[in-house]
Each structure stands twice: as C-alpha cells, then as structure tokens.
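User: Structure please.
Assistant: Input sequence and predicted structure:
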Amino acid sequence: MTLATRPIAQPRSFPIASPLRPQRQLAHVIVVHPIAVIRAGLSAVLSAGQVGQVSSSPSTFDALRLAVTHPPQIVLFDFAIGSGPEAGRLYAGLWPRPALIALVGPGSATSSAECFHAGVDAAIALEGATQDSILDCVRHVIEGKGPVASGFRAEAAGPGTMMVDDQPTSGLTPREREMLFLIGEGLSNRDIAEVLGLSVKTVEAHRGNLSRKLNIRSRSGLMRLAMGVPAA
C-alpha cells in the first residue's frame, strides 16, 4: 500500500450542513478505536450531529487503507500511551492532511498537552466528555479553531487551549466524581468513607473540594447536582 504524503499543514475550515441554510456536508470522518462499543458510540454521536459521512476502523492499518480510497477530512483516533504520537504522524502524512482529534481512554494519565505536542488539532478525554462537548469539539476543529479540548481537567489542559466542556462537573477528579455519585445516593460521610476505604476526615476534605469547585455549599445542593437537578 502506497500513501501520498506532504508536510503538515494547518487545518482548514469545512462547512457543516444547516437546517436553515443547507450546505455541503463533510466528505468523510473516520473513527479509529480498538473497542467496538466506543467506535459505535462515537459514530452514532457524529452521525446524529450531522458532521458528515462517518466510517469506523479498529486499527490504524485499516484506517490508512480506507483513507487511500476514501480520503477523510477528520480522523478521531485512539491516543494510546506509547502509540498515540506515531499514529498521529501517520494520519498527518495523508494527502490532503485531515484534521486530527486524539481520543484519550478512561483511566489514562495522558494530558491534552501531550496530545497537542504530538501535533493533533483537538483532544477528547472520553471519561469526562459528553455528547454535546464532543460535537462542540469537532465543530471547532471544522472551523479551524484550536487547540480544542474536552473532558480534561482545566488545570491539565495547558496554556492557550480552548475548553468546550458543558458540565459543571467536568473539572472534577475521578475520586471527586465517585464522591459526588455517592452523595447523590444519599450516603453519609461515614458511609462514603466505608465504601471507599478512606477516613472520615479524608472524605470531608474531598467534600470540601467538591463544594469549592462547584460553588455549592450545602449537602442538599450537591445531592441535587448529583441527581441531575439544578442546585437551588
């Protein structure tokens, strides 16, 4: 298989179809991830958001082979530790160069800054992103804006990064998310300490961080947020 290459160029703006003013949709978007359920979920989100024709591939090799016959304008790919930068360089070598969006899996310690250092246009942490923030991220890339990130803690995003998260909980750590969930279940501090194997004082400290980050001072307010009800 022969791949045409060229020097890396800046991403271009591509039109999105609009119900008010129909335009030509994106020609092709490829989602590359080894986990089938993630490929299917992202493909469904992108199709529902009308960002263009969506294909998926379980591997970089299959995606590159598909790209030869059907060039993509955007590639969303698994940015796994060790192989993410290499995969990004291969996709960047396609002609014309597609916009690149790194997908960081749950539990990964990879930061958005590491993704941008590898030359991608956007980075999405799947654990913290929502359907709306994923679509916002893709649309900003289509418009040529970047670097764009979704799902990462703001303090780990790096300077100059545009964050497109739409949830007040997007800046919480995994432990704080667990805490908020358990608060929403109605557990007391002592119960939470028992479930998580922590001391009550540590739980109280985490709860204090939650209140500060979310600007919600009462336990009832945290419970309402955890249950999906706007805090009073």
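Residues 4-9, 13-24 have pLDDT under 50 and may be disordered.
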